[in-house]
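Example record

The entry below shows one chain as it appears in the dataset: sequence first, then structure tokens.
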Amino acid sequence: MAAFHVPVHFGQLPKLHVYVDETGDRGFSARSQAQSPFFAMTALALPQEDEWMVTCAAGGLRALVHSGQPQQLLKPIHWVEHFKAKNPQRRSQAAHALASIPTARVIHVIAHKETLHQDAELRRDKGVFYNYTTRLLLERVAYLAREWPGGKRLAIVRLGQVKHMDHRDCASYLDRVRSGETFGVPWQHIKWPPTWVNTACNGIQLADVHAGLLNSALSGNPQDTACAENLQKISHQLRRSARGDLDGYGIKVIGDKRFVTERAWWPDLKNR
């Protein structure tokens, strides 16, 4: 990787812990697009001093899903495995647990695969697709850390490990991006390099649940508001601009953004 060092004085800033996970499928075959018309990456950020809230929320959700199985209390929670649609109460409880962290901020980058037809490289190579989506997410994390309420911070980024992905390649790509022309993105506000960790990490488990809430909303009928009911519960955590804008900040769409913005629940999410 090319050398790109965070200046010493940035390392003295208060820390912002950031956890990243994904939802949806990265494939572009007809079958993949039918099963998952989108791919999304989610970042959960909160001040280092509030990390204990992540521990409490993750531990509480593990106790919820593993009740009656004390031997499983340390087993990581997974949205797909533990928060199935047939258990709506558990999904609601998960949303309330996430919403209870007042200082948390969330960013989603959503790729609508059907309207990415003009970009052949993203469609052809899953690694390139993943790398590019990660880049857009971390750019927004960098701005979030620089503009954090109460003062600038240095983001410590941990991403969930992805099977069959070369994370070293992603780190090299991101390093090249940082070292080149990035139109003012404050990369110095991210401790370099980011790391990829397994699901034993509490923050990754909560980022997975956040991503699951988004998936539920996007998988519903565009005219249905009920599918986003739990997403609305954490809408106050979505990153917004100083003017309150959500589009491009807490939610960034790759492709035609109408995939998100023309859904019946979008106005309520946007205006909260």
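Notes for this example: The chain has a mean pLDDT of 91. Residues 4 and 179 are 6 Å apart (CA to CA).
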